[in-house]
Recover the amino acids of this structure.
């Protein structure tokens, strides 16, 4: 390797380092000044790393670790804003509450929700689902009846499956009419874990 090649490598490495620094400074300034459209962060949990997205309107997404992050980013760009920035500060409150929930110290989330990734029907279903208390369950049919669509249990199931904010909006508390654990976008193993965590007395007698 001659001196010219070495100088070229140093220059490229320096340019990349400066670009990363500039990007970090821009992100930090946006975070500090509250100019982030979509802030994202991660939190470790017993059911895998969770990926959260927060906007000025509130919590917009809780994603599981096996969800496609690129697909989520595309969904944010279409439904929220293409300006997505990793921010520990903007996501800290949500991440702290999730930690408390999994640690058994929290039974109710105190967060504002950004509903923009939900259709009007999904919003209606999730509003009813949010009324199911910690440690209890309801059924798809009961939710359908409560929103005055008694024949829409299957549609309720589809709406719950598209819930972009699982755990916080507790779609895991909705079970089949027989008590069977059916239909959870995060996988039935996660649904069972969450219900066991909450200690529902009507389930898991075996």
């Amino acid at each position: 390797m001659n001196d010219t090649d070495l100088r070229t490598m140093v220059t490229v490495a320096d340019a990349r380092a400066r670009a990363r620094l500039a990007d970090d400074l821009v992100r930090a300034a946006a975070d500090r000044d509250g100019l982030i459209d979509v802030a994202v962060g991660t939190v470790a949990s017993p059911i895998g790393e969770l990926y959260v997205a927060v906007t000025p309107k509130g919590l917009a997404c809780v994603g599981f670790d096996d969800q496609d992050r690129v697909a989520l980013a595309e969904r944010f760009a279409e439904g929220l804003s293409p300006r997505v920035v990793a921010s520990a500060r903007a996501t800290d409150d949500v991440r702290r509450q999730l930690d408390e929930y999994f640690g058994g110290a929290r039974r109710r989330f105190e967060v504002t929700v950004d509903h923009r990734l939900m259709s009007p029907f999904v919003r209606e279903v999730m509003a009813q689902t949010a009324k199911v208390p910690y440690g209890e369950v309801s059924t798809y049919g009961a939710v359908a009846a409560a929103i005055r669509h008694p024949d829409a249990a299957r549609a309720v199931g589809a709406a719950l499956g598209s819930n972009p904010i699982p755990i916080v909006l507790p779609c895991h508390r909705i079970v089949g009419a027989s008590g069977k654990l059916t239909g959870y976008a995060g996988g039935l193993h996660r649904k069972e874990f969450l219900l066991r965590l909450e200690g529902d007395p009507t389930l898991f007698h075996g």
User: Anything to note?
Assistant: The chain has a mean pLDDT of 86. The two ends are 69 Å apart (CA to CA).
